[in-house]
Write a structure and sequence with these properties.
By secondary structure, this protein is mainly alpha-helical. It has helices at 6-26, 31-42, 54-61, 63-75, 78-83, 85-109, 114-124, 129-138, 145-167, 178-182, 195-227, 230-250, 255-265, 272-297, 300-305, 307-331, 336-345, 352-363, 368-396, 426-437, and strands spanning 419-422, 442-445. α20 (426-437) links the parallel β1 and β2 (442-445).
């Protein structure tokens, strides 16, 4: 079979996931590391099933991140955002600012210009929403103090990408060549526009998402739901995500941010759970594809050419970010074990770095050589994240009090009802009201 045939490529990706992910899970490494290892093995530097066309796959695979942020937005009711406001604005903003200043200062000390140093500081301050959320969810840590704090920091970082993209055009250091201009991709609505018009278009797009989400999407979903055809509702969910992603791309912003905003707008919709269940399978597959593409994109030739420089930067970034996060966790009065989980989970550089590095190259902020080097650094730091979290779990947490915590006795429940409702959230309360209306007694459990 022709190696570049679409069906052959699809078979390779699926087979690698089926082979490596269960093995990684069995070894206690987590599914994310399994996907990354699969990408390395089938990539151009090991078996070679996937060549440089893997870079094109990355563009499609990033849509998994878009869907993940849409689902996160669906789970974010305004009350939860208000509850986390101190963590988001305090912990999140301090993490980005301090990490960017320290990393940028080191880059500047190594001889780079201040514009390049500032750009790299902001890029490398980001952490991986995809890897961290997936890993914490698999370990059942999302409801802990560490999980909630990590979520708050990631949420602020995702939002911070908007102003970062806005200030990057002011940091131009290199003349963009004809080839780089050709590689820039499709022309957007803001290309060639003055800064104030660019800002107005971006703000108008954000307002349009909020208004359309509140006034048009809910009646549309209600109309589609009345047809009773499940696949049409699934198509509607995909249309919402793809449409918003396209709009954000045309105004020069990250599609993931638009999808997140749409999810928040629909968080109180009566169709929230159905939207989430319809998107979930696509999100899972595309996220897996994204991790495989990250593994395949690691440039081992560049690493072999300057291994100590690459690995030195990876180690330095992980150590710096972990140190900043540990200090912030202590400042915000997190317990030692929760602080270690929080800090080690966010120690890598995230997937938005690929977007920002590409944007920096297109705008003439960073050179091709610099971008290639830091793409390898980012990919390796992401690949090491599951191992870093495993190291923390096996070697550090046992010495900071995790094992000494006594298990609280189970609650005694003296009721004997025919129905037990575990979890009294939006869905549980709806079922409870239905049961009470029909004179059916139930026992309700919640944290």
């Amino acid at each position: 079979m022709e190696q570049h045939n679409f069906l052959f490529q699809a078979m390779v990706y699926l087979a690698s996931a089926v082979l490596f992910v269960p093995v990684a899970k069995r070894l206690g490494l987590g599914s994310v590391l399994g996907y990354l290892i699969a990408g390395v093995v089938i990539g151009p530097f090991v078996l070679g099933f996937i060549g440089h066309e893997g870079e094109d796959v990355m563009h499609y695979a990033e849509f998994g991140v878009v869907m993940m942020l849409f689902v996160i937005g669906l789970e974010l009711e305004p009350e939860l955002l208000w509850k986390l406001r101190k963590s988001i604005m305090g912990l999140g903003s301090l993490q980005v600012v301090l990490s960017a200043l320290i990393i940028g200062g080191i880059v500047y000390a190594f001889g780079s210009g201040w514009k390049e140093a500032l750009a790299l500081g902001l890029i490398l301050a980001m952490s991986s929403t995809a890897i961290v959320m997936q890993s914490l969810r698999e370990k059942g840590l999302m409801k802990t103090a560490a999980g909630q704090s990590a979520f708050s920091v990631l949420l602020f970082q995702d939002i911070a990408v908007i102003p970062i993209l806005a200030i990057f055009p002011l940091l131009v250091s290199y003349a963009v060549t004809t080839k780089e201009a050709a590689d820039k991709g499709p022309v957007t609505w803001v290309d060639g526009q003055p800064a104030w018009i660019h800002t107005l278009i971006v703000l108008a797009s954000v307002v349009a998402i909020i208004v359309v989400g509140r006034l048009l999407l809910r009646p549309l979903l209600r109309m589609v739901a009345k047809t009773g055809i499940r696949e049409v509702f699934t198509a509607s969910a995909l249309l919402i995500v793809i449409g918003i992603a396209s709009l954000m791309t045309m105004v020069g912003l990250s599609p993931a941010l638009g999808a997140f905003l749409a999810g928040v707008v629909l968080a109180n919709s009566e169709y929230r759970h159905e939207l989430e269940s319809d998107i979930e399978p696509f999100k899972g597959l595309l996220l897996g594809l994204f991790f495989i593409a990250v593994g395949a994109s690691i440039d081992f030739q560049l690493i072999a050419a300057q291994p100590w420089r690459v690995l030195g930067w990876v180690g330095l970034l992980i150590a710096l970010k972990t140190g900043v996060l540990l200090w912030l966790g202590k400042t915000f009065r997190m317990s030692a074990e929760q602080n270690f989980i929080f800090s080690f989970s966010l120690s890598q550089v995230g997937e938005f770095a690929f977007v920002l590095l590409s944007f920096s190259l297109q705008e003439g902020i960073l050179s091709q050589e610099t971008v290639s080097f830091y793409v390898a650094v980012v990919a390796i730091s992401m690949g090491l994240t599951p191992l870093v979290m495993l190291l923390n779990e096996k070697w550090i947490l046992p010495h900071v009090g995790t094992d000494s915590i006594e298990r609280r006795p189970d609650d005694e429940i003296h009721e004997k009802n025919p129905v037990i409702i575990a979890g009294f959230g939006h869905f549980g309360s709806t079922v409870g009201r239905f049961l009470r209306a029909n004179n059916v007694a139930a026992t309700y459990l919640d944290v």
